[in-house]
Amino acid sequence: MMRKDQLCIEQFEGEYWWGGDIDEGVCMPFGETKHQRDLIINGSGNQAVPFLVSNKGRYIWSDEPIRFEFTNNSLMVGCERGSIQLHEGYGNLRGAFRAAAQTYFQSSGTIPDPNFFRVPQYNLWIELQYEPTQAKTLLYAEQVLANGMPPGIIMIDDNWMEDYGVWKFRSDRFPTPKAMVDTLHEMGFQVMLWTCPFVSPDNAANFRYLERQGYLLKDERGETAIRRWWNGYSAVLDCTNEAAVAWYEGELHQLMKDYGIDGFKFDAGDPQFYRESDQSAVPLHPNAHCEAWTRIGLRYALNEYRACWKSAGLPLVQRLGDKNHSWDAAGLASLIPNSLAQGLAGYAFTCPDMIGGGQIGDVENNPSFRLDQELFVRYAQCSALLPMMQFSTAPWRVLDSDHLSYCVEAAKLHESFGEEILKLAFHAAQTGEPIIRHMSYVFPEGNYEQIKTQFMLGDHILVAPVLEKGARSREITFPVGTWQGDDGRTIMGPCVQEVDAPLSRLPWYRWISTL
């Protein structure tokens, strides 16, 4: 019989919590208002963990999916298998987080490829959508350099391949892929390809082979499971089957060997595409199937994931879910709180969504769509001092020269901080600590728990992007100490000050001393 466990705790005065579903970072910290989330029956489309951590030095962990509810100054946590553990006495948010990381998601000691932190990424998804070609890919890379942006990691997204599960270049779109990759390497780019665990049943020969080998997930009737996802109906690779994973890795290895591909964007794998009744080599909860898909990426230094379960502490790039081209909590306003939530869930190697927004519904079949140049610039600035930044929509195509210059400056700022961010990445690999940190993580006595429009890069860089349309100044909370600004000004904290922030400026400050 399935064992159920439940925990009810009374909240301390002034207690706040983070954790669970990263997509709910915009709602964090929890604890002041009623909130509930069920990770047992409603898996996340972004990163998630069975973990909650408090600014009062407490944390909750379960090895299995949980549901939780904050109400009437109480926290209720339940699970349907395994147990729930409450750990107390760690003083503050940082103390509780580090204790949890050491006990339950100890870091591997390694990081993804260092260039993720040193240079921008260029994902071709929004720019080329479902029609990437060799010629368009090379043109995009050429224009990156022609517009003064640093070469980085270029990602060729969906539909470069013959079919889902047939991981071979489409010859009509990529006639000489080896020559293309060689040229991109000569230009200074590393090259990644999009991939997913889906297999098209319409590709008869490939589908028959994988089905015959037993490499595909089966439904409760023992039939090959066919699942609806955003690109139609497909079978699903059984990532609990070692032989199926070996086949898939063989396909990826061949791409690296034949064409010089450097790594892969591992998309999909969301818990919603699995059922608890599915038949697989190792029976798992849908969240754990997502985790099995995630583990494949550990074999590649150049990797990217969006949907992950209980994969904290691992050397995996974790991108935020697709964001809208908007100023609100579905777009730009979500980047900082959701990125902070990633770090406080143990996902240190974070990447915001594509600059300007990565939600294809904004531009596809939407005749009323109008690009906001100011928003695009503020997206770029907000991303510049996060651990990674990722362009997609070509800024040189959609922006005038002034707005373009501000995006180029943001890319160069990220590049100039590359070695500093890389050191923080290595620190995260040893300790699990986030690269970007909540104000209350670094300054636990400051009562900064509700601040989610600014962040710390490590312990000494305060970053305060502008997140409101039309704003040319913003209010910044400065903790105790002396802060040297990018504008040359020195500010003595603690204080709250309104600072100038024209469209050309991303306000950031370096801590110099406590007095």
TrEMBL record:
The keyword Hydrolase applies. Keywords: Glycosidase, Hydrolase. Pfam families: Glyco_hydro_31_2nd (PF01055), Glyco_hydro_31_3rd (PF21365). It comes from the Bacteria. The keyword Lipid metabolism does not apply. CDD domains: GH31_NET37. GO terms for biological process: carbohydrate metabolic process. Residues 432-508 form the Glycosyl hydrolase family 31 C-terminal domain. One of its GO terms (molecular function) is hydrolase activity, hydrolyzing O-glycosyl compounds. Residues 130-392 form the Glycoside hydrolase family 31 TIM barrel domain. Belongs to the glycosyl hydrolase 31 family. This is Glycoside hydrolase. It comes from Paenibacillus selenitireducens.
